[in-house]
Amino acid sequence: MTAPLTPPPPPNEGPPYRGGPVPPPAGAHASGAAAGSPYESHGEQDGPGMLTEVRQAVVTALAVTLSGALLGVLWWKLAPSVPLVGTVVDGRWFVYLKDSEGEQAIAVDGTFTLLALAFGALSAVVLFLLRRRGGVPLVAALGVGGLLGSLLAWRLGVWLGPTEDVIAHAQDVGEGVTFTAPLRLGAKGALLAWSLAGLVVHLGLTGLFGPRDPEPDPWPAPAPPGGAGGMGG
């Protein structure tokens, strides 16, 4: 009498599991740090972390703000002079514009606005070249730094210019003598020119030359013939 024969394993049944990582099925795409690795890498970030981005944003805002000192000096140097004249009436001093139809006061505001627009465009270009990946914190730092830099430039230009006490200035130079009015920014909206120009230019540069995300593969690779498992004997 003979013993019953052991039936062969099914064709698609692989070798028994003996511990260790389970190999991926044939035809599957490798993912993770290296192709063919049994494990996927999780928690890996693209680019700097949030803390690094915030630190870079603070440095950017500080640098942009400090560059407003240069804007203030240029405004003080390039802005046209507004001539004033002092006179005495009944023992009281009065100051008036020498040229009542002149446009020097408007030109003072225009000079500040044009300089602020140029500084905004330049700061956006420099930021894009240094940090091409951009990010919301850096863009916010550019806008905040532009506003603070404009405020610094405005106050510095006023401080460097002639004294704001026009009556005392008229008394010093004498009655009927022309003197220069202090720097004044009549259009306070010019303080936003730096920030607006910086954001628009940075947005345009990012849209034209910024990094692009890789496009997904619309056609997955076909699985090799023979099935996912090994052939039985």
Secondary structure topology:
Blueprint: H1 50-66, H2 68-78, E1 83-89, E2 92-97, H3 104-130, H4 136-160, H5 166-173, E3 178-180, H6 193-209
Helix pairs in contact: 1-4, 2-3, 2-4, 3-4, 3-6, 4-6
Helix-strand topology string: HHEEHHHEH
* Number of beta-strand segments: 3
Mean pLDDT: 80
Question: How is the biggest beta sheet arranged?
Answer: 3 strands, antiparallel
Helix-residue proportion: 40-55%
Neighbour order of strands in the largest sheet: 2-1-3
- Poorly predicted regions: 27-46, 228-233
Q: What structural class do the secondary elements suggest?
A: mainly alpha
Radius of gyration based on Cα positions: 36 Å
**N-end to C-end Cα span:** 27 Å
Task: For this entry, give a set of tags.
single chain; 233 residues; mainly alpha; three-stranded antiparallel sheet; 6 helices; disordered C terminus
